[in-house]
């Protein structure tokens, strides 16, 4: 055993199994003992900028006192009560706040625990909606290539194209995939958008005897996990309109894009500006500001009404032990209040313009490809002679980032910032400067005559 491991790390090695990790070859995890604002500290007191908001969940910085207090106060009042046959003030207040802030036609909130379960709930709602409507032949799901919707079975089926799910393939239901018209350096080609719409048209009008489409599911504006791939709002709106004209429901997976990430409170707001709407919206990551695991599936009055019946089997017979947990609701309400503050909005705008300024510099860097931004999300590809998710490229970036005080979680050779909204321009300027050092080290490391044997 490695003699340099601290007692914490020794016990981690002995007892923990980490997510998305090949435990045999993984490097030692970073042992974080404290967080404050946009920073995390390790056992030795070294500081790291959490430029990825800890897997995109932490909106307002770590250990934010207002959210911590909301949770403490709630814990002393009512920590939990089951949500079947019971209701409580934090759940009602949160449901009301979410419906008031989300674009039409959202009318009802169904609570669950994480992004994947929010997707499962949306898929089950859609499947049962059509059965309740007397149209069980409407049962196919249409999704976008490169979409990621989570790691439970329905979510894996809808995100199948990401390639993580090969061992589970025999158990996944069939899904139809459209090409995703994502923007690259050359700008979105109208031809790819047109091809995506044409493919949708074909799926919306299947040949006689085939099952009909039930719903279109997509990550609006930004496909997160497949590499921060961005799409034009006009195009997403066009996809929604076409699907709905054919009677198909639209699910927006806003697990990542929700809560201000893309520049509006929800990506759905930007799409609504172009006349596109969803019938269901899934939210999770930023919902509680990164404090409590919680998720919601929002839907329209029309979808909700299809479950009203004298027959109990027309009801959505789905629920989780911790549905609408009061601590989660209290955290979410406190996080929403912070998000609403003019100071937060001003810092989000400053993050966006700081990204813009640095991306303009990175544009001309020979090792950088396709710098892009949407709201507070910035991304680019590091030119590499190989390009695989989980490859040594991403491991090199992660480890070099840590040496420079940056917590990065690259997707293959895609480097991105998704900073907490408390991040100051000074911190972000410092982080970009450190990132330039990382890119320069990469240029040397990746040069064919020096580092090639390392791959
Ligand atoms: C993270 C993510 C999910 C899954 O959420 P979990 O909380 O990890 O289950 C689903 N959809 C999108 C777009 C995500 O980014």
How is the main sheet built?
Answer: 7 strands, mixed
* Strand runs, count: 16
Beta-strand percentage range: 15-25%
Name the bound molecules.
pyridoxal-5'-phosphate
Report on the structure:
This protein has 455 residues and is of the alpha/beta class. 38% of the residues lie in helices and 17% in strands. It is built from 14 helices and 16 strands. The chain has helices at residues 7-15, 53-56, 65-77, 89-101, 115-132, 153-158, 190-204, 233-245, 267-272, 301-305, 326-340, 342-362, 392-403, 425-446; strands spanning 32-36, 39-42, 47-50, 106-112, 138-144, 175-178, 212-218, 222-223, 229-230, 249-253, 280-283, 295-300, 368-374, 377-382, 406-407, 414-417. Strands 4-12-11-10-7-5-6 form a seven-stranded mixed sheet, with helices on both faces. The longest helix is centred in the C-terminal third of the chain and has 22 residues, at 425-446. Mean pLDDT is 94; it is low at 450-455. It binds pyridoxal-5'-phosphate. Pyridoxal-5'-phosphate binds at residues 114-116, 119, 148-150, 219, 224-225, 253, 255-256, 284-285.
Strand and helix map with partners:
Blueprint: H1 7-15, E1 32-36, E2 39-42, E3 47-50, H2 53-56, H3 65-77, H4 89-101, E4 106-112, H5 115-132, E5 138-144, H6 153-158, E6 175-178, H7 190-204, E7 212-218, E8 222-223, E9 229-230, H8 233-245, E10 249-253, H9 267-272, E11 280-283, E12 295-300, H10 301-305, H11 326-340, H12 342-362, E13 368-374, E14 377-382, H13 392-403, E15 406-407, E16 414-417, H14 425-446
Parallel strand pairs: 3-15, 5-6, 5-7, 7-10, 10-11
Antiparallel strand pairs: 1-2, 2-3, 4-12, 8-9, 11-12, 13-14, 14-16
Helix pairs in contact: 3-11, 4-11, 7-8, 12-14
The structure holds pyridoxal-5'-phosphate.
Pyridoxal-5'-phosphate (PLP) binds next to helix 5.
């Amino acid at each position: 055993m490695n003699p340099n491991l601290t007692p914490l790390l020794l016990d981690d090695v002995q007892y923990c199994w980490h997510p998305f990790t090949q435990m045999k070859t993984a490097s030692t995890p970073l042992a974080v003992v404290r967080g404050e604002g946009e920073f995390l500290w390790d056992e030795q007191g070294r500081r790291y900028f959490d430029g990825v908001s800890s897997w995109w969940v932490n909106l307002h910085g770590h250990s934010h006192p207002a959210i911590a207090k909301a949770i403490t106060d709630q814990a002393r009042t009512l920590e939990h009560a089951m949500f079947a046959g019971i209701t409580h003030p934090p759940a009602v207040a949160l449901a009301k706040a979410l419906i008031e802030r989300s674009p039409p036609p959202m009318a009802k909130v169904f609570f669950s625990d994480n992004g994947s379960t929010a997707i499962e709930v949306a898929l089950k709602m859609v499947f049962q909606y059509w059965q309740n409507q007397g149209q069980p032949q409407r049962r196919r799901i249409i999704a976008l290539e490169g979409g990621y919707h989570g790691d439970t079975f329905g979510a894996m089926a809808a995100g199948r194209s990401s390639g993580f799910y090969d061992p589970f393939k025999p158990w996944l239901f069939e899904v139809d995939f459209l090409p995703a018209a994502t923007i690259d350096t050359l700008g979105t080609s109208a031809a790819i958008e047109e091809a995506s719409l044409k493919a949708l048209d074909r799926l919306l009008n299947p040949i006689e005897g085939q099952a009909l489409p039930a719903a279109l599911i997509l990550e609006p504006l930004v496909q997160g996990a497949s590499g921060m791939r961005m799409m034009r709002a006009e195009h997403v709106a066009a996809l929604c309109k076409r699907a709905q004209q054919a009677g198909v429901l639209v699910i927006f997976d806003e697990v990542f894009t929700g809560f201000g990430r893309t520049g509006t409170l929800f990506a759905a707001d930007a799409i609504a500006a172009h006349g596109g709407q969803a019938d269901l919206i899934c939210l999770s990551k930023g919902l509680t500001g990164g404090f409590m695991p919680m998720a919601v599936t929002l839907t329209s009055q029309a979808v909700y009404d299809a479950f009203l019946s004298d027959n109990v089997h027309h009801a959505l017979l789905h629920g989780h032990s911790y549905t609408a947990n009061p601590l989660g609701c209290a955290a979410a309400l406190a996080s929403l209040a912070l998000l609403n503050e003019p100071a937060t909005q001003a810092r989000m705008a400053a993050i966006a313009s700081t990204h813009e300024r640095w991306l303009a510099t990175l544009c001309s860097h020979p090792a950088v490809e396709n710098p892009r931004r949407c709201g507070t999300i910035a991304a680019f590809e590091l030119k590499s002679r190989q390009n695989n998710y989980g490859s040594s490229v991403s491991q090199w970036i992660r480890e070099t980032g840590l040496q420079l005080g940056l917590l990065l979680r690259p997707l293959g050779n895609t480097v991105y910032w998704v900073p907490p909204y408390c991040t100051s321009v000074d911190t972000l300027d410092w982080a970009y400067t450190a990132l330039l050092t990382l890119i320069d080290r990469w240029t040397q490391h990746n040069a064919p005559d020096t580092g090639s044997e390392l791959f």
